[in-house]
Amino acid sequence: MRFPVLSLLFLFIISLSFHNPISAQCLDDQKSLLLTLFDSEDNDLSWTPNTDCCSWEGITCDSSTGHVIGLDLTNQSISGSINSTSLISISSLQSLNLSLNHFNCSIPSGLDSLSNLTHLNLSFSGFTGLVPIEVSRMKSLVSLDLSFLFSLALPSPDFGYLIGNLTGLRELHLDGIQISAPVPEFMVELVNLSSLHLVYCNLSGEFPSNNLSGRVPSSLFMTPSFKTIDLSSNNFQGEIEWLGNLTRLIHLSLSDNDFSGQIHSLSSLAQLESLSFSRNRFHGQISSLANLSQLSYLDLSSNHFSGQFPSLNSTCLLSLDLSSNSFSGRIPSSLFMIPSLRTIQLNHNQFDGQLDEFHNASVALSGIFLSNNKLQGQIPRSVGQLVGLSILDLSWNNFNELQIIDLSSNGFTGIWMVWGPLIFWANGRRWYYKQMDKLLIMAKAWWER
Ligand SMILES: *[C@@H]1O[C@H](CO)[C@@H](O)[C@H](O)[C@H]1NC(C)=O
Ligand SMILES: *[C@@H]1O[C@H](CO)[C@@H](O)[C@H](O)[C@H]1NC(C)=O
Ligand SMILES: *[C@@H]1O[C@H](CO)[C@@H](O)[C@H](O)[C@H]1NC(C)=O
Ligand SMILES: *[C@@H]1O[C@H](CO)[C@@H](O)[C@H](O)[C@H]1NC(C)=O
Ligand SMILES: *[C@@H]1O[C@H](CO)[C@@H](O)[C@H](O)[C@H]1NC(C)=O
Ligand SMILES: *[C@@H]1O[C@H](CO)[C@@H](O)[C@H](O)[C@H]1NC(C)=O
Ligand SMILES: *[C@@H]1O[C@H](CO)[C@@H](O)[C@H](O)[C@H]1NC(C)=O
Ligand SMILES: *[C@@H]1O[C@H](CO)[C@@H](O)[C@H](O)[C@H]1NC(C)=O
Ligand SMILES: *[C@@H]1O[C@H](CO)[C@@H](O)[C@H](O)[C@H]1NC(C)=O
Ligand SMILES: *[C@@H]1O[C@H](CO)[C@@H](O)[C@H](O)[C@H]1NC(C)=O
Ligand SMILES: *[C@@H]1O[C@H](CO)[C@@H](O)[C@H](O)[C@H]1NC(C)=O
Ligand SMILES: *[C@@H]1O[C@H](CO)[C@@H](O)[C@H](O)[C@H]1NC(C)=O
Question: C-alpha angle with apex 290: 284 to 296, nearest 5 degrees?
Answer without folding.
Answer: 95
